[in-house]
Design goal:
It is a single chain. By secondary structure, this protein is of the alpha/beta class. It has twelve helices and twelve strands. The strands form two sheets. The chain has an eight-stranded parallel beta barrel, surrounded by four helices. The protein has a four-stranded antiparallel sheet with strand order 5-6-11-10. The relative contact order is 0.14.
Length: about 350
């Protein structure tokens, strides 16, 4: 596997030089953050980002992410121009030699949490999703602001957008719109040798009555069947899929890995604190509800050689920064994952 680290560009308080010093670090996961959603990414911006990463002695392994415009998800008549721009972006990423693109198809908002600085018993802080808190919120009021929401929308725009989904798009309609999108972009990805890797919904269930469809094994199988191509693949996120206790993440890794559809892995641990509530934890298996060793074993079983990154660390040792994306705890996560991988490799070698 290729160890990578999420980096948010020039606005990230963690410099590439620090990331380079993490043992075993090979690649960077990043994006272009100053191009409005729906516009094509200029090749020169992609090459500039790649040059910055390579100058620091690392590889630009994954673009995470190229956002999908809401008009595409809604299936509006304007979607074709945004899909055309998306195709241009994929072509430019191919010209720059970018191997993998992570993206998602979640309506309105990306990952969502009820609190970003929940204090754990050891004094560190982490992200948490408390279903009872979310259930009491009314997004239509226009007063709601949650982590993971696109802050580029005004309150009235957010209200109108949510109503548009509720009035026009149920789960089956969202599947139709996703299929339309996939059938337009995967042929381009094949043409320029860029593997597309959809990220599961986070958390993997409906929020505020809005549809979410990339949530479990059955739906992942339906997704890869939309367009039968090795370029139409998955970002397997343990924290997102693992938030649902019914999802057997290691088994899903083995299943889709053997099909050649696992293109990127997010490794994080979470602790279930209710049927639809969870808190994020350190990567250590005993600190959460997921067996990280079994996850690494599953990756070994499928001979996974692609990129993996530690996902959503705690804030520890007084660090101030982007919640979930501090340096220290994610670096500890890298060390832990590398240790598990080395142990598994040596356990499988015949005794001399």
């Amino acid at each position: 596997m290729e160890m990578t680290f999420r980096w948010f560009g020039k606005d990230d308080p963690i410099p590439l030089e620090y990331i380079r010093q993490i043992p075993g670090m090979k690649g960077i996961v990043s994006a272009i953050y100053d191009v409005p959603v729906g516009e094509a990414w200029p090749l020169e911006k992609i090459l500039d980002l790649k040059n910055k990463v390579e100058t620091a002695g690392l590889k630009l392994s994954v673009i995470e992410s190229v956002p999908v415009h809401e008009d595409i998800k809604l299936g509006k008549p304007t979607r074709d121009k945004y899909i055309e721009n998306y195709q241009k972006t994929i072509r430019n990423l191919g010209k720059a030699g970018i191997p993998v693109v992570c993206y998602n198809f979640m309506p309105v908002f990306d990952w969502t949490r009820s609190q970003l600085d929940y204090q754990l018993p050891d004094g560190s802080t982490a992200l948490i999703f408390e279903d009872e808190v979310i259930q009491k919120m009314d997004p239509i009021s226009g007063e709601l602001s949650l982590p993971g929401w696109d802050t580029s929308y005004s309150k009235d725009e957010m209200k109108d957008l949510i109503n548009e989904y509720k009035n026009n798009v149920n789960e089956e309609k969202l599947w139709e719109n996703l299929e339309y999108f996939i059938k337009a972009i995967i042929p381009v990805a094949e043409e320029v040798n860029v593997k597309m890797a959809i990220h599961p919904d986070d958390p993997p269930w409906s929020i505020f009555g809005l549809p979410r469809i990339i949530t479990n094994k059955e739906n992942l199988e339906r997704f890869i069947s939309l367009y039968d191509s090795p370029y139409n693949g998955l970002t397997m996120c343990s924290g997102s899929l693992g938030a649902d206790p019914n999802n057997d993440f290691p088994e899903m890794l083995r299943y889709f890995g053997k099909k050649g559809r696992v293109h990127f892995v997010h490794a994080r641990n979470i602790k279930h604190i209710g049927s639809k509530s969870f808190q994020e934890s350190s990567h250590l298996s005993s600190e959460g509800s997921l067996d990280m060793y079994e996850i690494i074993r599953a990756l070994h079983d499928i001979n996974y050689t692609g990129p993996i990154r530690p996902d959503h660390g705690r804030m520890i040792w007084g660090e101030q920064g982007r919640p979930g994306y501090g340096l220290y705890d994610r670096a500890l996560g890298v060390a832990y994952l590398n240790g598990l991988w080395e142990a598994e490799e040596k356990n499988r070698k015949p005794i001399k």
